[in-house]
Specification:
This protein has about 280 residues and is of the alpha+beta class. Helix content is about 30%, strand content about 30%. Strands 1, 2, 3, 4, 5 and 6 form a six-stranded mixed β-sheet that branches. Strand 5 and strand 6 form a beta hairpin.
Amino acid sequence: MSISQMKKSLTARIVQEKIYNLLMQGKRLDGRSPTDIRPINIVTGLVEKADGSALVSMGGTKILVGIKTEVGSPYPDRPREGSFTVNAELLPLASISFEPGPPDERGVELARVVDRSIRESRCIDLEKLCLIEGEKAYILFIDIYVLDYDGNYYDPSTIAVLAALATARIPRYEVVNGKLQKTGEYFNLQLQSLPFTITFGIIKERFLVDPQIEEESALDVSLIIGVDEKDNVVSIQKNSPGLIPENLLEQMIETASEKTKTIRQKFCEALNIGK
């Protein structure tokens, strides 16, 4: 091990011990309690050329989501359904740890976590996106951009995607003599579920939620749990090596259920919807 690696390792251990000692006292580096999430701000309709868009900040982390719609062929094994795809890009301007070029494994993982929560909760009624069975259907392209990174881009990304979906205006087509024609009208997606995620960090036998960037560097294990409004766990993603005690997992699921209720309330107030 080089001297620089030894210094980095020693610094990480010192920071971890500091964070752990604070957790033992029910405190955090930024003054939060272990289960407090950072303030959330949601703005929609920012990108004029997108069918739906949202900018969400969670503390110092900022996420922009844009949605574009196209008409294409449904999957052969799902002829009565439309589809959606999620992509994520960690912009170099957001952090010195993000490099230019095609999406790396972190961007791929972020897209998969969000996709899984949306898909497994059946948030979107894909059958309503079918235009001509087996021939034509709506395809939603959901793009996530991490604009500013101060730890935990998973939870604000999920919020931003749901906000963009909830406020999207989709061009309406109708079938005339077996052919599709644009009507000039638009329709809104009626979301069937609001599945939000909570990101956990574990240090020894303690956990915290919504880690900021300095805390992330000191974690033993990181875990993302998605929960819908019926308290169903719709996704779990362990994105770092390490073991999670069974009793701790049960506590984290309970905490995720509680904290997603808080996010859901904030979300519905920001978008003026009932859920």
